[in-house]
Design brief:
single chain, 283 residues, mainly beta, Porin, 13-stranded antiparallel beta sheet, two-stranded antiparallel sheet, 2 helices, globular
Length: 283
């Protein structure tokens, strides 16, 4: 029961972070527009894609979870993170928060057969968001610079290294008829500890078809993502995304666990807002 509760809790945190990010990508900052202090409802999504950048096997997940947005001046579940806003100006914002990734069993990834599973990952650390341009009142070009420690939940909590993901995004809230769009181009870097977790093969797990390998610090993958959202009415929003990794450019593309140079993930979700605060805030 404790293991099931732990897995549900990690899934809930990751799912809440995922929905917050999806919501934020099509709700860019609009000067002079106030938003509810909080919003709550139900959200569901399904996604499929490579188990990790460079993996040859896809994993799929489907979750239905409570959904919550809180736009407090300090503590927040909004803007693509769960955590605390340290400072904000018209140009820059600094926060400390959480991100995450769902687990991948080695039973589902043939090349990792006999190796430990990749557990639920939670990432915690600071992020800077720089508003570089506002092409229109409802759009923004932004540079995001998150640096986060990576923690694995798998029979306990284990530190798995540092990840850095500079990302350039373009968000436009209103394309007309309830549609919004977000596009991004980023780079994912890992230190030696994190890259060893993803791509390293300790000698005790080496086989005739999987040689021992020690990973290097450096680039994991360039990444592009496109997210479309459609507001069906005031309370219901659907979204879809496609994300492509170009892992063949990574520092550890020679790892025996790295089998393909390009992989695409796709997802589809729905957010149903059941209630919102009457108090409005400048987000």
């Amino acid at each position: 029961m404790r293991t099931l509760r732990s897995r549900w809790f990690c899934s809930a945190l990751i799912g809440l972070s995922f929905f917050s990010a999806s919501h934020a990508q099509t709700e860019p900052d609009v000067e002079g527009v106030q938003k509810p202090l909080w919003e709550a409802g139900i959200a569901g999504f399904g996604l499929t894609g490579p188990a990790y950048p460079g993996a040859d096997d896809d994993v799929g997940r489907a979750l239905v979870l409570p959904w919550f947005i809180y736009r407090g001046p300090v503590w927040r579940a909004a803007g693509g993170t769960l955590g605390a806003r340290v400072a904000k100006t018209a140009f820059a914002e600094f926060d400390i928060g959480l991100g995450g990734a769902l687990r991948a069993s080695s039973d589902d990834v043939k090349v990792r057969d006999g190796m430990p599973d990749l557990g639920f990952l939670l990432e915690f650390g600071p992020r800077a968001k720089l508003n570089l341009a506002r092409p229109s009142p409802d759009s923004v070009v932004r540079l995001e610079l998150p640096l986060r420690g990576v923690f694995e939940f798998n029979s306990g909590v284990h530190y798995r290294g540092l990840a850095f993901e500079p990302k350039l995004t373009y968000d436009k809230r209103d394309l007309g008829r309830g549609w919004g769009v977000s596009g991004s181009l980023g780079l994912i870097y890992g230190d030696q500890t994190f890259n060893q977790y993803l791509y390293g093969v300790p000698s005790q797990y080496a086989t005739t078809s999987r040689s021992a390998y020690t990973a290097k610090a450096g680039l994991i993958t360039p990444r592009t993502q496109l997210t479309l959202s459609h507001r069906l009415n005031e309370d219901v929003r659907m979204f879809a995304y496609s994300r492509t990794d170009f892992a063949g450019k990574g520092a550890n593309s020679s790892s025996p666990l790295h089998l393909q140079d390009r992989g695409t993930s796709v997802g589809l979700g729905l957010i149903w807002t059941l209630g919102r605060s009457s108090q409005l805030v400048n987000d």
